[in-house]
Design goal:
With about 600 residues, the protein is of the alpha/beta class. The chain has 3 domains: about 140 residues, no CATH class; about 120 residues, Rossmann fold (3-Layer(aba) Sandwich), CATH 3.40.50; about 250 residues, Rossmann fold, CATH 3.40.50.720. The chain is built from 21 helices and 21 strands. An 8-stranded mixed β-sheet has the order 10-9-8-11-12-13-18-21, sandwiched between helices. It has a 5-stranded mixed β-sheet with strand order 2-1-5-6-7, with helices on both faces. It has a two-stranded antiparallel ribbon with strand order 3-4. α5 links the parallel β1 and β2.
Length: about 600
C-alpha cells in the first residue's frame, strides 16, 4: 500500500499557493481601483468638456470608450509590471511606472476615440482631460492601501517611546522602519535636528521638535524613554554631548553603526544598539578617497607585516576589498596568522601562500621572502607597543621597532616596492618613552629610505587604538569584572583614541595620498580624560568599583601630542589628515648604546626587574 506523503512535504506547496492567491488578490484589487479611476476620469472629462450639459454626451459611445480604456489599462498594467508584484504598493518606483502606464493608455485611448467615437459625442480632448484625473485617483488609491497596510504594522502599544536625533536620510529611514515593525520594541514619537531648515519637517506623522538642546523638553512632552542617534558619521565629541544631555533628561541612548559600516552593508541601518564607551571616545569617521586607494592597490601584490595582530588583521581584511592581485599575511605568531586567515579567507588551513611565518628581526628570511614573492605594496604594522614593558626591556624595542623596521625597509628596497606605509604612534611626537623613541627612529628610517628610493615610503601616526590586544578598554573591563580596583595613572591624564577600523582606514588612505617621507596624522578631535572613561565604564557596569591612582610611569606623558614642534601641519588632500615632515636618519648613524644612554633608562629598568 502506498504510504501517504508526509505533511511537511506538502507544506511548501500550500504556502506557495497561499502566496500566489494573495498576490493575485492584491493585483486584482489594484486593477479594479485603476478601472474605476479611468471610468471616473472619462466621465468627469466628458461632463467638464460639455460644461455639465449631460444631454450632449453620447452615453453609448462613452461606455464603449470606457470598456476599451479599461482593457488597455489591464494590458498596460501588465506590461509595466503594476499587476505582477514588482513594486511596493504606493512606493516611488510604482508611481514612476504608473506615470508611464497612464501616458501609454491615454495615447492609445485617444487614437481609439478619434477613429471610432469622434463626431459621435466624444470630443478629442476627452482622454487628455481624463488622464490626470485618473492618475490622481489611481495614486490616491495606492496611498490609501499603503496607509492601511502600515497602520496594521505599527508597533504595539507597549513599545518604548523613542526620540530620533538626526532628521536626514538615516533618521527618515529609521522612522519608517520603526513605525512599520509590529514586533518592534520602539515607536518614534519625535525628531530632533540642529539644522534650522528642518525645523518644520514631518516624517510619517513624526515631527521635528527642535534641536539637541531641546532634548529635555521634547522628552517631557512626548514621554520618551529612549534617544536613538541616527547620524552615521557622528564623531566622539558629539556622542559625548549627546550622552550628557540624555543622562540629564533620563533617557537611554541607542546608536546606528558608523557610516563606513552602513556604506558597506545597508542592512546594518537596522542594527540599532546601545551606546558603548567606544562611541564616546573613538568615533572619528574618515571619508575615504576610494579612487586614489584603488589606483595603488588594485591588481597589486600587497604584503602586511604583523598581519596576525589586532591592527594588522583588520588592515588586511579591509585591503582585501580593494581586489589586490595577491594579499600576503606575514607574522611570527602562527596562531594569530590562522585567526587572520580565517577572518579573510573563510578558512584557517595555513597551507596556502597567503600566510607567511617569519620574524622581521630575521633579515635573511625577509630578503628571501621578498625576493620570492615580489610585493609591490607593503604595510608594516609589526612592532612591540606596550610602553611599560619596553621601559624595562629597551633592547627588545631596539631589535623589533628599529632594526626590524630597517630589515623590512631594506627588503622592500631590494625588490622595488613602490608604496611602503609604516605604522607609527602619537608617542613618536616629542618622545619621552622607549616606545616613542623607537617609533620615532622608525619614522626617520622610513623617511631616509623614501629619499634613497624616490618612492612613496611614509609613516602613519595615530593615538591609542581601542580594542587592540592589551589596550586600555579591555584592561578596564577585566578589572571591573573582577571587582576592581580600577587603576588610573593620574586624575588629569588624557589620551587620543580611535577604533581599529578607523585606524586602518587612515592607513589605507595614507598610501593613496601620502608623499614620500611624510608622516600622516588623523585629526582625532579633543583628547579624552581617562578618569572620565573609567567613571563611565563603572557606571555602565552597575558595580561599585574603587578607582586607584598609581602615578605616571616612567616615560609616560600627562597629555599626548600628535604633531611635534617643527613638523608642520598641512592638509592638502584631506580635511581630516595632516601631512607632517620628519628628519631622515641613515642606518650608518644608528647607535644603540647612545640611544639607551640618552634616555637614561638603564638604572630605571634595573630597579624594575629586581
Amino acid at each position: 500500500m502506498d504510504q501517504p506523503k508526509p505533511a511537511a512535504k506538502r507544506t511548501p506547496s500550500r504556502t506557495l499557493k497561499q502566496r500566489l492567491d494573495h498576490a493575485f488578490a492584491a493585483s486584482g484589487l489594484l486593477f479594479l481601483c485603476d478601472a474605476f479611476a479611468w471610468t471616473v476620469g472619462i466621465l468627469a472629462a466628458l461632463v467638464l468638456r460639455y460644461d455639465f450639459e449631460l444631454q450632449r454626451i453620447h452615453w453609448g459611445w462613452a461606455v464603449v470608450l470606457i470598456v476599451a480604456v479599461v482593457l488597455l489599462q489591464l494590458l498596460a498594467g501588465w506590461l509595466f509590471w503594476l499587476y505582477r508584484g514588482r513594486y511596493e504598493t504606493g512606493g516611488f518606483d510604482e508611481v514612476k511606472a504608473l506615470v508611464f502606464d497612464v501616458f501609454a493608455v491615454m495615447a492609445v485611448g485617444w487614437v481609439i476615440a478619434y477613429l471610432l467615437a469622434y463626431g459621435q459625442g466624444i470630443p478629442r480632448s476627452t482622454m487628455i482631460i481624463a488622464a490626470p484625473i485618473s492618475f490622481t485617483l489611481m495614486a490616491a488609491a495606492r496611498y490609501l492601501i499603503r496607509l492601511s497596510t502600515e497602520n496594521k504594522m505599527k508597533p504595539k502599544a507597549d513599545a518604548e517611546r523613542a526620540l530620533i536625533y538626526g532628521a536626514g536620510y538615516l533618521g527618515n529611514q529609521t522612522v519608517k522602519r520603526l513605525i512599520t515593525d509590529h514586533a518592534g520594541v520602539s515607536t518614534p514619537v519625535g525628531l530632533l535636528d540642529d539644522d534650522p531648515n528642518k525645523a518644520n519637517l514631518e516624517v510619517r506623522g513624526v515631527r521635528v521638535l527642535g534641536g539637541l538642546d531641546d532634548l529635555a523638553a521634547a522628552a517631557a512632552d512626548t514621554r520618551a524613554t529612549t534617544l536613538i542617534v541616527c547620524i552615521g558619521d557622528a564623531d566622539a565629541s558629539l556622542m559625548r554631548r549627546v550622552d550628557q544631555l540624555a543622562d540629564r533628561a533620563g533617557l537611554k541612548v541607542q546608536v546606528l553603526p558608523p557610516l563606513e559600516q552602513i556604506l558597506q552593508n545597508s542592512s546594518v541601518v537596522n542594527e540599532v544598539r546601545e551606546l558603548s564607551i567606544e562611541d564616546l571616545i573613538g568615533r572619528h569617521p574618515v571619508r575615504l578617497e576610494t579612487a586614489s586607494i584603488a589606483e595603488y592597490l588594485q591588481d597589486r601584490v600587497v604584503l602586511v607585516t604583523g598581519a596576525g595582530g589586532s591592527i594588522g588583521s583588520e588592515l588586511a581584511r579591509q585591503l582585501a576589498k580593494f581586489a589586490p592581485r595577491e594579499l600576503i599575511l606575514l607574522d611570527r605568531d602562527e596562531t594569530s596568522l590562522q585567526a587572520a586567515q580565517l577572518a579573510i579567507s573563510g578558512h584557517g588551513l595555513l597551507d596556502t601562500n597567503d600566510v607567511v611565518l617569519a620574524d622581521i628581526r630575521d633579515a635573511a628570511a625577509l630578503n628571501q621572502i621578498f625576493a620570492e614573492r615580489r610585493p609591490e605594496v607593503v604595510f608594516h604594522t609589526a612592532a612591540l607597543k606596550h610602553l611599560p614593558m619596553l621601559e624595562q626591556y629597551p633592547d627588545e624595542a631596539w631589535k623589533t621597532n628599529v632594526l626590524g623596521t630597517l630589515n623590512v625597509l631594506q627588503a622592500a628596497r631590494s625588490v622595488g616596492v613602490s608604496t611602503f606605509v609604516n605604522i607609527s604612534t602619537d608617542k613618536a611626537a616629542n618622545p619621552t618613552s622607549v616606545l616613542g623613541h623607537s617609533k620615532r627612529v622608525a619614522e626617520k628610517l622610513t623617511a631616509w629610505m623614501a629619499q634613497e628610493t624616490g618612492e612613496r615610503y611614509l609613516s602613519v601616526r595615530f593615538g591609542n587604538v581601542i580594542g587592540s590586544r592589551g589596550s586600555m578598554l579591555p584592561t578596564f573591563r577585566s578589572l571591573i569584572e573582577s571587582g576592581g580596583p580600577l587603576t588610573v595613572t593620574h586624575p588629569d591624564v588624557t589620551r587620543f583614541f580611535m577604533t581599529i577600523p578607523e585606524a586602518c582606514q587612515l592607513v589605507i588612505q595614507a598610501g593613496g595620498i601620502g608623499r614620500q617621507g611624510e608622516v600622516l596624522i588623523l585629526d582625532m578631535g579633543e583628547p579624552v580624560k581617562i578618569l572620565d572613561v573609567a567613571k563611565r565604564m563603572i557606571a555602565q557596569s552597575g558595580k561599585q568599583v574603587e578607582i586607584v591612582f598609581t602615578g605616571l610611569r616612567h616615560g609616560e606623558k600627562l597629555h599626548e601630542e600628535l604633531v611635534a614642534a617643527g613638523e608642520g601641519d598641512e592638509r592638502p588632500f584631506h580635511s581630516k589628515i595632516t601631512h607632517a615632515h620628519v628628519d631622515t636618519m641613515s642606518p650608518e648613524t644608528l647607535d644603540h648604546a647612545g640611544w639607551v644612554a640618552r634616555m637614561n633608562l638603564t638604572a630605571e629598568a634595573g630597579e624594575r626587574v629586581q
